[in-house]
Amino acid sequence: MATRTDQVVGFGLVVFSLVIFIYYTIWVIILPFIDSDHIIHTYFLPREYAIIIPLAAGLVLLLFVGLFITYVMLKNRKPAKKTN
Amino acid sequence: MTRLEKWMSTLLVLMLIWLCLVQDLLNLGYSKKFHDVILSLPVYLLVTAGSYLLGTLGFRLANFNDCEEAAQELFMQIQEAQADLSSKGLIL
Q: Do both A16 and A39 map to the same domain?
């Protein structure tokens, strides 16, 4: 069974992803059609960051995935060499 | 059609539609604001897919379950196999 911690972390992830989706939709799709002097614009970064932040986050994620795979493969190769 | 081909062709079609919209090949003549929104649609798709996957991951984690019936069945089968093998003279 999923423990209490699993459930808290799982639903936390669901809420987090929903928040990201709603915030990003408002930022990218709705905000250009609202007057630029409206108060809502103070809650969002300039529009360039809507492109830069996801791309940078994606690159960092790919970097970490690559580092992890490299680490695991290097770790698994050493015992095989000793037996030879 | 493999899964990879399916995804690749879907992405290709989406990309062609997006290119048509960016270059305004249909001469819809929309405003600058619409053009800005259309330009950022690929990154929007990326963010949407990412948050959907994260949400799915969280939901599955929260509803993670033991398969007690399957464990019971497997245990029964192991016992059956052991009984069968020892009746044929194999020492376990």
A: yes
Nearest to B64 by CA among A69, A11, A25, A36: A11
Chain A residues with CB inside 8 Å of B47's CB? 20-21, 24, 54
A6 and A32, same structural domain? yes
State the count of interchain CB pairs (< 8 A) between A and B. Answer: 79
Give the closest of A13, A16, A24 to B47, CB-based. Answer: A24
Give tens-digit pLDDT for A2-40. Answer: 788 889 999 999 999 999 999 999 988 888 888 878 888
Q: How far is B1 from chain A (nearest CA, A)?
A: 28
Domain extent, residue A4, equals 1-44
- Which residue's entry shows tokens 């493999």? B2
Tokens of B92: 């376990």
Residues A39, A64: one domain? no
Tell me how far apart the alpha carbons of residues A50 and A27 are, in angstroms, rounded to a whole number: 7
Give CA–CA dist A12/A83, Å, rounded.
Answer: 46
Query: Do A28 and A51 sit in the same domain of this protein?
Result: no
pTM (predicted TM-score): 0.73
User: Does A62 contact chain B (CB < 8 Å)?
Assistant: no
Contact A9 B61 (CB under 8 A): yes
Checking if the pLDDT of A79 tops 70, the result is no
